[in-house]
Each structure stands twice: as structure tokens, then as C-alpha cells.
């Protein structure tokens, strides 16, 4: 059985302002770096074989910080786990997006079917590259929500679940199917005060 520990990246200034980031390459802020250290400390008791990350800076920085706690493992960048593109909504808050695009037709928005295709390809790549191993995958709220939606047949995930910065979710593969073990866990942030979910 291959298991994946999904971790959303730490906070950025755009998260704190409530802005949709999409493919914008925004770095972690100080709070985000602290969150990454806290999730690293929390996960150091888990045994991982490798770390996979989105190519975007906020995810890579989170992965690098966490990796110092879990053993400086091989770290691979996989574009299949990049955040979805919000098109012309990038940089807007949700109220601004809804006001500017009241019908929801956002130019440049990545179609769900395209995200689904690359997510499935990425998960297959992890499964074949790390059979019967535990892999840490650092990605993004929108992307992780797509994974959760696909594996739960839409019961959770996209449009239903607000994922917090550095939240932890676990999924496991047996045969041809993936199962959700847990999701959006933030026990490691319990002493941190307010956490953000955009």
C-alpha cells in the first residue's frame, strides 16, 4: 500500500489578505515559515521515503522546511501538483471575484477536467515510483481539494471544504483505488491562534 501525506503550504501575505493566488509565485511570510516548522515537528515521527512538491515557491519552501525535520529526504518537483490557474481572478479576493465575474465565467480559469487529468496522472506517478512507501506531498488548497473531491465522489473537497494552511490529509492506495484516511488536520497548529483557509 502506498500512502501520501498531503500538506498544504504555509501562509503567504496573499493568504493573509484573502487573495486567490493560483499560479502567482508568492513566497511564504514569517507566519507561514513558522507553520511549516510546526508541521515538520509534528510529522517527524512518521517514516517517509520521499518528498514531492508543487513547483511554486510557497510549496517548495514549505517542503524544504518540513524536510529538515523528517530526514532531508530526496525532494522531487512535480508540475502535475501545481495549483490550479484562477485565470483573471488571480490576485482578487473572493468578494472581488464574485463582483467582477458574477456569472462565474472567468477567462483563463483552468477547467476541472484538466485539473482532474493531471491530478490522476500525478497520483499514479507517486504510486508507481514509491510502491508500498509513505510519501510527503506539499501542494495547494485548490489542488488538494480536487484530490479530496475525486476520492470522495464530491462529498468533500472543491466547493465544500476550506483547507487551512499546513493542514494535513492522508490518502492510501490499495490496488486501483485511493482512499481518504483523514483530511484537513491542524492539531499541530493548536497553540498558534488563528489559521487561514484561503
Automatic annotation (TrEMBL):
GO terms for cellular component: cytoplasm. It comes from the Bacteria. Gene3D superfamilies: Phosphoglycerate mutase-like (3.40.50.1240). Substrate binds at residues 8-15, 58, 83-86. Pfam families: His_Phos_1. InterPro entries: His_Pase_superF_clade-1, His_PPase_superfam, PG/BPGM_mutase_AS, PGM_Phosphatase. PROSITE patterns: PG_MUTASE. One of its GO terms (molecular function) is phosphatase activity. This is Phosphatase. It comes from Sporolactobacillus inulinus CASD. The active site is at residues 9, 83.
Amino acid at each position: 500500500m502506498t500512502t501520501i501525506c498531503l500538506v498544504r503550504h504555509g501562509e503567504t501575505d496573499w493568504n493573509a489578505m484573502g487573495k486567490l493566488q493560483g499560479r502567482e509565485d508568492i513566497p511564504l511570510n514569517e507566519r507561514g515559515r513558522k507553520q511549516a516548522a510546526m508541521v515538520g515537528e509534528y510529522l517527524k515521527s512518521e517514516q517517509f521515503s520521499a518528498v514531492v512538491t508543487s513547483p511554486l515557491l510557497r510549496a517548495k519552501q514549505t517542503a524544504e522546511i518540513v524536510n529538515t525535520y523528517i530526514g532531508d529526504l530526496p525532494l522531487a518537483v512535480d508540475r502535475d501538483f501545481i495549483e490550479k490557474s484562477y485565470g483573471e481572478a488571480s490576485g482578487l479576493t473572493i468578494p472581488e471575484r464574485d463582483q467582477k465575474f458574477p456569472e462565474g465565467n472567468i477567462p483563463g480559469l483552468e477547467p476541472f477536467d484538466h485539473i482532474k487529468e493531471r491530478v490522476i496522472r500525478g497520483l499514479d506517478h507517486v504510486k508507481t515510483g514509491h510502491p508500498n512507501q509513505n510519501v510527503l506531498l506539499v501542494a495547494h488548497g485548490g489542488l488538494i481539494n480536487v484530490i479530496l473531491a475525486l476520492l470522495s465522489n464530491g462529498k468533500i473537497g472543491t466547493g465544500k471544504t476550506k483547507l487551512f494552511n499546513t493542514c494535513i490529509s492522508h490518502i492510501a492506495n490499495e490496488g486501483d483505488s485511493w482512499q481518504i484516511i483523514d483530511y484537513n488536520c491542524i492539531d499541530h497548529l493548536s497553540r498558534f491562534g488563528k489559521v487561514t483557509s484561503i
